[in-house]
Amino acid sequence: MPSLGPDMEAGTLVEWLVKPGDRVKRGDVVAVVDTQKGAIEVEIYQPGQIEKILVDLDTKVPVGTPLAELREEGERLPAAAAAPKPPTTPAVAPTAPPAGPAPVRMQAPAVAAAPMTAAGGRASPAARRLAEAQGVDLSTIAGSGPGGAIIYADVEQRIGKTVAVAGKRPAPSLNLAAMRTAIAVAMARSKREIPHYYLEHQVDVTACEQWLTQKNATRPPDNRLLIGALAVKAVALAARRFPAFNGFYRDNKFEPAPAVHVGIAITIRGGGLAAPALHDADQLPLDELMGRMRDLVQRMRAGRIRSSELSDPTITTSSLGERGVEALYGIIYPPQVAIVGFGKVMARPWVVDGAIGPRSIVTTTLSGDHRVTDGHAGALFLAEIGKLLQEPDKL
Amino acid sequence: MQAETLEITYREAVREAIRDAIRRDERVFLMGEDVGRYGGCYAVSKGLLAEFGPDRIRDTPLSESGFTGAGIGAAMAGMRPIVELMTVNFSLLALDQILNNAATVRHMSGNQFGVPLVIRMATGAGRQLAAQHSHSLEGWYAHIPGIKVLAPATLEDARGMLWTALQDPDPVLIFENVMLYNMAGKLAADASAVDIDKAAVRRTGRDISLITYGGSLWKTLEAATALAGENIEAEVIDLRSLRPLDDATIMASVTKTRRAVIVDEGWRSGSLAAEIAMRIVEQAFWSLDAPIGRVCSEEAPVPYARHLEQAAIPQAAKIVVAAKATLGRA
Fold first, then answer.
1. Residue B101 half-sphere exposure, CB side, CA atoms within 13 Å?
2. Inter-chain residue contact B325 with A153, CB threshold 8 Å
3. CA A127, CA B286: separation in Å to the nearest integer?
4. A276: buried, middle or exposed (CB in 10 Å: 19+, 13-18, 0-12)?
5. Which of A16, A193, A355, B20 gives a 20 to 30 Å CA spacing to A266?
């Protein structure tokens, strides 16, 4: 019985489309299964000959139950004499396997997985207790204990609490290996659990560039505004107007966040990546937002980030414009439900007011969680970001 | 202020404890195989027969059940006997007396009689005495309600536990690891009785609790030193009393370090180490960061050949490996 959805635990076999002796090839529909979502056709993945039907019609069986036995091409029928004799006279039909190649059990891979946490859910009792007390989501932590288990110190590190133990601890620094493990855990979970949809939109940022040139003309380099700050502010304002993109998907439901904390993806030399939060980004004047972004990047790269900044983002932005690519399609950082990507600002021939002229164009993308929003809402959200960037003085 | 100290061996510390007890209390006498003329098979009682005479230092026939029973009767009648059994392996001949009489008389007599008896015996491997003289069965005795079981690992405890044990109204068994008799060190000249119901923290640390007793204490301390070289601070607990176990000291340590490895020269299955691990799970589960580890003896009779004998029992290197596994470090 294949898993036909993450919440499916059992299915009822309502129709067999094959019978013993039938030859099947990959992709053939062999049965129909009734689930909570309606009747679903079951395909077969291996060619061969149906050996035996194991589940009768109108029988409800748990996910993972073999439905039929399939004999692969080239397999011989077992010689009856070769079958091992049970040691005593069987009272029921013998279940001893036939000699020779065993029939392949037809069993779709179970798609539904247990709730994903690091290392298959391993966390020490001490870590679990601390995480519960502090409201930390263990599935977002990479473990450093035996077998990759999450231990007390891992949770403590997330909380950012220093250990009140006498004696020397190594100075805090970025553990890139642990960070890589954390990225692996979070991204694998995201791609496993979140049905992403992707939208892309070309935004004319010529107005932004002109406005920035004017603003920055009289400023020393340290105080100059960068287009990235405008982009973050635009995302934050749009997220406030479209709350379905700002929040968390937990326990099979979406919880919109009361505030907008935009996660800023920051690369770290040596192979690290993190997206700490710029708190209340929608409320910040641009200069302050720019200052906080600089501070965040500096502290992140120095390994002096606050735990709340790591756990609070309600939506993430990522920009690879500096690296010269035109677009990026982000992977949502769970339990968030959206990530907005910005590519490089490109000078392009563009039609404005009926005439072709050079304009500065940036490709913005949205990766959305289809469990929470649909492409239609995503399009409105992405278009809103584009619109906001047309009037930089109002950001 | 530092009291005057003596250079002394563990063997001499035990002997001093016996001498002190015989001098202080006229009801005390020592009884066992070869304790008199031969001076004890581990030479613990050497010289005592000459000093105290045959009423106080009594050689017995090779009959553990008989003389242990005599000790029980003497204790019930008001004496304070110290019975020496050569090794824990031989003590099995007296197990009926210890379990069915010594440990139960107070219960069976409705508290009319008690057995204030002390039984000393040697335990442990390492002297190439082969499988009939080398086992560590103190964990079996720690299973028995009605008796106390002690494992002095230091000179202070070798010197100080006996007197306190003799004051106890019920039977006390003292296990002396054979590898400790030659251990020499400094002991305060005025060393005297010590408590017999508390575990001792022999080294403090924050990363892991190594829980042990008896002869394994020194291997465990050696392992802790090696671990410190790898920036792992191990706390070493010397149980001292195997029954009753000092749960409070164990749990305080494990709650702090969140990890534990138990080092026990007994065989692993059904061991004292298993009992301690279970108590930790019962009382400190929510403080744990890793599965509890154990370093026990291999489940085979202790071999005679030296390299095999050493391979069969806990060693510092094995303790280091177990401790690091608990910390997730290979």
1. 19
2. no
3. 8
4. buried
5. A193
SS3 state at A186: helix
Question: All domains of chain A, ordered by start, with CATH?
Answer: 1-76+100-112 (2.40.50.100), 118-172 (4.10.320.10), 194-394 (3.30.559.10)
The three-class DSSP label of residue B11 is helix
Q: Report how far Cα B261 is from the mean position of its chain's Cα atoms.
A: 19
Task: Name the residue among B219, B262, B222 with its Cα closest to residue B242.
Answer: B262
Q: State how far the Cα of A232 lies from the Cα of A264, in Å rounded to an integer.
A: 8
Q: Calculate the CA B176 to chain-centre distance.
A: 5
Q: Residues 140..179 of A with a Cβ closer than 8 Å to B: which?
A: 144-147, 149, 151-153, 165, 167
Separation CA A284–CA A296 (nearest Å):
15
Say how far apart CA B144 and CA B149 lie, in whole Å. Answer: 9
Among the partner residues B233, B258, B290, nearest to A146 by beta-carbon distance: B290
Give the model confidence (pLDDT) of A286-320 as tens digits. 999 999 998 888 887 776 666 667 778 999 999 98
| Residue A47 CB neighbour total at 10 angstroms | 14
Residue A307 pLDDT: 61
Please, are residues B240 and B179 in contact by the beta-carbon 8 Å criterion? Answer: no
Give the span between the Cα atoms of A70 and A66, in whole angstroms.
10
Task: List, in order of start, the domains of chain B with CATH numbers.
Answer: 8-188 (3.40.50.970), 200-326 (3.40.50.920)
> Which residue numbers of B are catalytic?
64, 133
Q: Is B291 on the interface with A (CB under 8 A)?
A: yes
Distant-in-sequence, close-in-space partners of B167: CB < 8 Å, separation ≥ 6: none
Is B233 an interface residue toward A (CB < 8 Å)?
Answer: yes
The amino acid at residue A25 is K
**Using one digit for the tens of pLDDT, what is the confidence trace for B240-279?**
999 999 999 999 999 999 999 999 999 999 999 999 999 9
Q: Which pair of tokens denotes residue A51?
A: 């050996």
Q: How far apart are CA A376 and CA A389, in angstroms?
A: 20
Sign of the dihedral defined by the CA atoms of residues A366, A369, A375, A378, in that order: negative
∠ CA B91-B92-B94, rounded to 5°: 65
Strand partners, A196: A369
Q: Are B146 and B170 contacting, i.e. CB atoms less than 8 angstroms apart?
A: yes
